Amino acid sequence: MSKRKETKFTPSLELLKPSINIIRDNLLIYFVLAVLPSLIFGFQVARVGSNPDFSVVFSGVFFGSIISLLLYPPLTYTYLQTAKNKRVELSDAFRESYKYFWPLIGTALLSGLIIIIGFILFIIPGVIMLRRYLLAPFYVMDRKMGVTEAMETSAKESKEFSSSVYGIIGVNVFFGLIGVIPIIGQIIGAILQILYSVAPALRYFEIKAASKS
Fold it and tell me: At 82, which helix (H) or strand (E)?
């Protein structure tokens, strides 16, 4: 039965096109929440590279962490809403998403810690943990779940449709490998990853529909 459900899923690489279309139709909010922070991060990296002083490194890491923390909830909200073909205003993204601020941050931190430990112990457990919890933030915001419930549900549903989640991971890894090529590859890889960033939300809704059928 599960295999029959999985055949309905869009091939992972083909999710690039709808992801691009969604970002194009919501260009301003994605520029503010995704592109601009990436440019700021790139500037901080260049600044640290040219002046590897401790204070510069610390301020760069601290500033980048604060920006990422503040933008994570509205960006997650934007992924979910635009994946449902809804228009999102920047003010709405901040107002509505901060209702889930602490559960989202808790899920991200706990999932990230488990994934990192998995990779430290051995690569395969890390990949499995990544599959289990990649979509967990969407369960928090879309289904109003707590941290542990969201992680448990994400792990359960992603296991049933594991190949569809591993496909998303594989495409992101491929785009990341393009970044190994100096300068031009780094630029292209970063652009592709941003353009593909709605794909996990699109996959989440496919899994959600398949789980209910």
Answer: helix 54-83
83 and 198 Cβ atoms separated by less than 8 Å: yes
Measured in whole angstroms, the distance separating CA 84 from the mean position of its chain's CA atoms is 16
| Residue (of 209, 203, 200) closest to 75 by Cα position | 200
Kindly give the interhelix angle for 199-212 and 162-178, rounded to the nearest 10 degrees: 170
Please, are residues 90 and 81 in contact by the beta-carbon 8 Å criterion? no
Give the pLDDT score at 2: 44
Alpha-carbon gap, residue 133 to 121, rounded angstroms: 17
- Residue 143: give the domain boundaries: 2-212
Q: Indicate whether this model's pTM tops 0.85.
A: yes
Three-state SS at 213: coil
Nearest to 57 by CA among 44, 39, 69, 41: 44
Q: What is the pLDDT of residue 39?
A: 75
Cβ–Cβ < 8 Å for 132, 186: no
Query: Could you give the CA distance from residue 61 to residue 163 in angstroms, rounded to a whole number?
Result: 35
The CA distance from 18 to 199, in Å, is 8
Locate 108 and state its tokens. 């991200």
Number of structural domains in the chain: 1
Burial (CB < 10 A; 0-12, 13-18, 19+), residue 103, is buried
